[in-house]
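Methods — Computational structure assignment.
A single polypeptide chain was analysed. Its primary sequence is given first, followed by the predicted tertiary structure written as structure tokens.
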Amino acid sequence: MIGKNLQKLRKQNELTQEAMAELVGVARQTIAKWETGESVPDLEMAGKLASALKVSLDDLTNAPENELDGRPGMRGKHMFGVVTVGDKGQIVIPVRARRVFNINPGDQLMVLGDENSGIALVNAEFFMSVAEEIRNGY
């Protein structure tokens, strides 16, 4: 999967194999071998690839190819699936979302809402720091 994802993301970023190779410090032939599945990058190199392509390591290695379809500017946007609201209003945040956003047990999330757009969850600490900056006039 990593080979196909690497190729798709490289092309979305309008990079040649040679340009991609220069970004991560390998030969063009190495990129070609990774894309065809002849070999796979080690963890350190996969991290460099993900960083250069502005995606998470998880998306580079595990995302279904169709989830990588996106217009420029859509990177970092995710759809994690559907959740069911329980009797008391509780939801379970999908594992992949918790990994991407580093949400751990005990973390606090701010629930924001717009009656026309819906509900959003934001890290409470981040939200409060932004609110403080606004209050202090930046």
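Note: Residues 9 and 68 are 7 Å apart (CA to CA).
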